[in-house]
């Protein structure tokens, strides 16, 4: 009798059952590893793309994240290579594999899945840390088109203001220079863009275009007003130069009286005042003539500077003249009544004494010593006025020094009270 098939033993059935179960587990582990590999690859691609954007916007700020990502990339590439190696080493499509072989494949796939999953988590965490910086940069990037539009609008406005000034007979040379610089800065921004300037550089360049264009526009718009100011200032400064020139004779007379009536110490620092004033007046006239020429050439900004220089000369001459005539008046008053000119210093010392006495806890010893010394200086002052030509100027300076010292004591007391001392 011929057998139609071999008799199946119970042990064979159990082995085949274990083999099928092991194969299914290995395939499931392989599928999980494939999913983990895909997720890691996608995370790596995403972070790489964000870093490219980051570097375009701010290359300097992106340097450190790029270095960190390089380390992550190295680990991810190594994990990917390990995954591919395991796939090649465990071909689950081959028949007649043993349960042990399937189990080894399963363990290898589980291990590489854990490695891939951990790297995906690291990449996602890195992306999370990168996100706030990128969001800030992208928000700033959104400002760039508006800044460029504003800069171009200002250049157009500057052009119109320059054309208007030119039509009115002005010469807007400075405004033309500024608007040309604005166009040049805009060309740099347009040609180099984010790739050459970075976001911070592009924003700064846009601001520079706007600044130059605005300066050009304001300069052109201000020309008529500046021209009118210069014309009026020239009239005023011509009048003033005559007034200051007229002070030369009174100063000469005052100096003569100082020299004749008072000691050398009273007037030596003022010697040559008349010549100084005459020189300043002459220089002011030269600046006025220069301003006239500049105004005739429509160079209003330079003309205004020349007028300012003339005024500076006249102010210096005025002060010098006032110093001479004022010195004579002060010395005459001191010579007529030395005690009277000391009154202000005496009042200052008394005020300081009253404040010191009314201080909480009584007057401070250092204030008492200072004020007693000031009183002694007041009493000794008139004794210095000796001889046929007393040094009244030294006397007046001593009174000023006493008054200042008394005011210092008052200030110290007030500060101490303010701080609760």
Task: Give a short summary of the structure.
The protein is mostly helical and 421 residues long.
Protein topology:
Elements: H1 10-57, H2 59-89, H3 99-167, H4 173-245, H5 248-261, H6 273-296, H7 300-336, H8 338-341, H9 343-357, H10 365-380, H11 392-418
Helix pairs in contact: 1-2, 1-3, 2-3, 3-4, 4-6, 4-7, 5-6, 5-7, 6-7, 7-11, 9-10, 9-11, 10-11
Essential attributes:
421 residues; mainly alpha; disordered N terminus
Explain what you see.
Helix 6 packs antiparallel against helix 7. This protein is mostly helical and 421 residues long. It has eleven helices and no strands.
Helix content: over 70%
| Number of separate helices | 11
Find the count of extended strands (DSSP E, 2+ residues).
0
Shape: elongated
Mean pLDDT: 84
Could you say which structural class the secondary elements and strand pairing correspond to? mainly alpha
Q: What value does the Rg take, in angstroms?
A: 46 Å
H-E string: HHHHHHHHHHH
Termini Cα gap: 129 Å
Beta-strand fraction estimate: under 5%
Question: Uncertain runs with pLDDT below 50, 5 residues or more?
Answer: 1-8
The biggest beta sheet reads:
none
